[in-house]
Structure prediction request, 347 residues.
Amino acid sequence: MRATTIHAPFDVRVEDVPEPVVQLPTDAVVRVLRACICGSDLWAYRGGSARKPGQRIGHEFLGIVEETGSEVETVRRGDLVVAPFMWSDSVCDYCTEGLTTSCEHGGFWGAVGYDGGQGEAVRVPFADGTLVELPADAASDDRLLSALLTLSDVLGTGHHAALGAGVREGSTVAVVGDGAVGLCAVLAARRLGAERIVTLGRHEARTDLARRFGATDVVAERGAEAVEAVRDLTHGQGVRAVIEAVGTEQSMRTAVNIARDGGAIGFVGVPHGSATGLDLTVLFDRNIALRGGVAPVRTYIPELLPDILDGTLDPSPVFDLTVGIEGVPAGYKAMDQRTALKVLIAN
Prediction:
C-alpha cells in the first residue's frame, strides 16, 4: 500500500509499504477514507522534532474497518469509524478517569514501528478502546466526512482548551492563534455559551472564518499592541477565559497579559522551539489558573459527535485544500508556506 514517510527536514515522501495486518487479538485494520495534515506535523517536517528516516507520519484519520482481531467487540468489518490521535485501551485508571492521552498502554500514530494516519490503511491497537463508530451513511457525504474527521484532533483539542479556560454561558473569551485548533476553539467556545469571542490573528481569510464560526471581535496586532487592544475591548481588565493555541513563548506571554485577574488560560498549543520563560509569580499574584495540555479527544468524541451530525457544529471549513495520497508532499509544502490552513487527504 501507499503511505507517507518522513526522511529528513522538508523530505516527506509517499512510498510503498507493507499492508497492515491484525497482529494481536485486540487489533483492527482500518482502510482510510479521509486523513489530514496537522500543524503539529509541521514541526517534524521543519526539523523541530526528531524522526527516524522512513518513519510514518500523520495522526488524524477515519475510514472503514477491514479486519478485526478475535477479541474486538465494539466494531466489525464494514463499520465507518473515526480514530483519535492516540490509541488507548479504555480500561486503565487514566482511561476510566477520561485522561485517555495518559493511557498506560496507549501511543501516538506514526510512532516507530506503528502506522501513521497519512496512508491507505492503518493497524489500530486496542480497537475497542480507540475507535468510535460513525453512521454508515456519512461515508457518502463529503462535507460531513470532513467535519467528522476533525473529531480525531482539532475539534476535540479546541474543546479541551475551552474547558481549561473555564468557558461557560455568557463568557468573554480570547483565542490566541488563528490556526485550525484556534478556529475550532472559537466553535467550542460558542457551543459552551460564550457571549463575546475575541480572535487574535492577522491572516484575513482565517479571521473571516473565525467570525463565521462565532468570533465577535478580531485583533490583528501582536505583542504589546495586541495586549493593549484586548484590554481596550474589556475596559482595561482583560479576559476571564483565554485560549492559547500556538505554543510559542510570545503567544503564552500574550495569553498571560490579556488574562483578567482571577481568570484562566486553557493552553493546547504544542510547546516548541524554546522554553516559555513564564514567570509563575505573575500567575500567583494575579490568581490566574493555567490548565490544558494534550487533549484527551477520545473522551470528548461521544459528546461532540451528535452536534456534528445534527449540524450544530460544522468545522469542515478548516480544510481549505484537498489532495490525494500522492499529493501529500505538496500539501506539507502548502501548509509550511501558509498557503493552506489545513490539508485534507482524500483516499
Notes: The CA atoms of residues 9 and 47 lie 5 Å apart.
